[in-house]
Amino acid sequence: MTDNEVLLTYKSNLFDLIYDGEPSTYIERWLGIMRESWNAERVHLYIHSDDTYLLYGSGEEQDIPLSIREEEIRYRNPFSISYEGANEGICHGFAFADHQGGGSLLLFWSGGIKVGPAHLKQIWEVSNRFLLHTSAIQTVHEDERRYRELFNVTEIFHSTRDVRKLLVVTMDTLKRVFPQDVFTLLLANDPVGNEAHSIRHFDLDKANEASMHVFVSGEMKCWGEHVLYAPLKGTQGIYGVLEVKLNPTSPLTDHKMEFVRLLAYTAGSALENAKLYEQSRKVISDLQLINETSHQLNLNLRMTDTLQFLRKQVEKSFQTEDIGFVLFEGGAVMIAEESSDLFGLPSGKRYVDFVHERMQENREAIFIGEMSEQVGDGEAFSSLMAVPMLHDGNLLGFCLVLHRDTYRFSFDMYRLFQSFIHHSTLAITNARLREKLEELVITDQMTNLYARAYLGEKMDASMEQDDHGTLLLVDIDDFKSVNDRFGHQVGDEVLVQVADLMKEVVGESGYVARWGGEELAVYLPSVEQSIGALIGRALVEGISEKTSPRVTLSCGVASWHRKRSAVTVEKLVKRADEALYIAKNNGKNQVVLEDRTTYA
């Protein structure tokens, strides 16, 4: 084949390639055409990077160098260069300008048809025009493909408010458009991590100068020749930095920079909108929590119900592991039963003591993400929030929550927790006052026994739900003489002694009340008369032995049983009172049953 025939065949094949070829395959097919046109054994392309040239494609042949240093090239003119390195697989070649990256390309071949210098120059000129033309076509094609990707990803950004989906779509798009480069998304103030998609936390302490500059200034910046940083910027702030590590064979062009800038800006705006949407939903959720809590607490709940409800709300809203309610009562520190079991243990009380000490100093809320240096080494819990319960300037107690993970609670959660406890404190205060008032109503102030009316309510309730019960009416014998001899103050002290001893004997089996004056009463629900008589005898014997000055008791016992006859509180009291009357007139210091049997 003559030199002209080689040139014409080469031109014809290039024309066919441009006419019906896919731009993304131009380079590979061009190398094939070079090999076929010259009947060459090998054709290899090298792309300039820094001070070396890197082999394009795979280097499966052992005698083909993967890279060539500039000093290994002998350059006579663009269409006549030679390789003078150690490898023997390549020899002569062409040098072209890289019209996409501004560098240069080297084309080497070995074997094949020998072509004269004049025709060799013509082949170089044709090849150079081909590269110029294909470069322009590839640029248009790549721009079209990139902006089509940008359009598609923008549609997705507008259709979702899922932050994680936005981030994943951004990274997938970049990797699809520039598969040869390496992308990493560094997010600030957001611990969302996804190593599979190269999404990481932006550690400000470890960030390099270039990435910090981009994060602060909001402007793109190159770091060296192969790393680019672009900000994820919205209208209200910068949410992270996109790191691009360029492949040496894929130079940074203006088109690539513009695409990365647009995508980063679009992603930043979409991320900002998604975060604002999440924040608005969070605000609505927080308001619903406060409203629901306030509504529930306004139902005049008892203290136990109030604290149980608060615990459920806190556990649901803040994902805590342990929660403690600490109340101050008369100078004492009381851990409410509704608290987590941890706070009943020495390990939990250390946290209570720590918070209590801090609260006594400044009465301010506490927000700690790493507790190891605060309470002591090796502590199980790292995150702590504690908020004081303040009412009219008085410190009523505090609520604290714990979690084992470091920095588990966000600052927004801390602010919500403060608002939550602030709104709940009034309900806790009201519940405490309500229970104190109830206690005043149902309790005799001198003896701390139940009042007569309260005992009557308990007997009514027992007669509705129990099958039987026993009533003891007790009177202090000759109590007037005690007052006359020792004075009313001593008489009051004796009355208190008797009341305390009676509560000790009865315990949890019944209710002890002051019936009137020196007359006392004991009601024993679901207790047979025989057991009631034994308790009456224990009272009579104990009082005479343990009071000072010594007094004795008279006791009347009456009982009821649903199977025997209908009964009312009034009838039961009347029978017990009649038995007491007999005991008083029969020598005192004894127990008499309603059938007039003397038991002691």
From TrEMBL:
What SUPFAM superfamilies does the annotation carry?
GAF domain-like, Nucleotide cyclase
Family annotation (PROSITE patterns): GGDEF
What's a single GO MF annotation on this record?
Answer: diguanylate cyclase activity
Question: What CDD domains would the database entry show?
Answer: GGDEF
- Which residues does the UniProt record annotate as the domain GGDEF? 467-596
Check the record and name the SMART domains matching this protein. Answer: GGDEF
What's the name of the protein?
GGDEF domain-containing protein
Organism the protein comes from: Rossellomorea marisflavi
